[in-house]
Design a protein that fits this description.
By secondary structure, this protein is an alpha+beta fold. It contains three helices and five strands; from the N terminus they run H-H-E-E-H-E-E-E.
């Protein structure tokens, strides 16, 4: 994995930059771009293992979830950790609009 700046130790400014970069990546709806933020052996929700499965999952997800939009907001940070508050909304032809926080 090639770490992407900004890297720890974080300041308020670099923590905000990191959060914005993550938001931008997710809103690109590019599964490969998003997956690069995670290790090759990443484990998601106990059912996805590795970047390949993450990419496949995100492709399926975004094929169903139209008008996907994620917002991330810096909640707290330390020198080596960042906490975010997030919400997302999407449109699905079957169930309509959904917003989660």
């Amino acid at each position: 994995m090639n770490p992407r700046p900004p890297l720890p130790p974080f300041t308020q400014e670099t923590a905000r930059q990191k959060v914005q970069a993550a938001e931008d990546a997710w809103n690109s709806r590019d599964p490969e771009r998003v997956s690069l933020a995670y290790t090759e052996d990443t484990e998601w929700r106990k059912f996805l293992n590795g970047r390949t499965q993450v990419v496949e999952f995100l492709r399926r997800k975004w094929n169903k979830e139209l008008d996907y939009r994620l917002r991330k907001e810096l909640w707290a940070f330390t020198e080596n950790r960042i906490a975010v508050r997030f919400e997302y909304e999407r449109y699905n032809r079957v169930s309509g609009y959904l917003r989660k926080r």
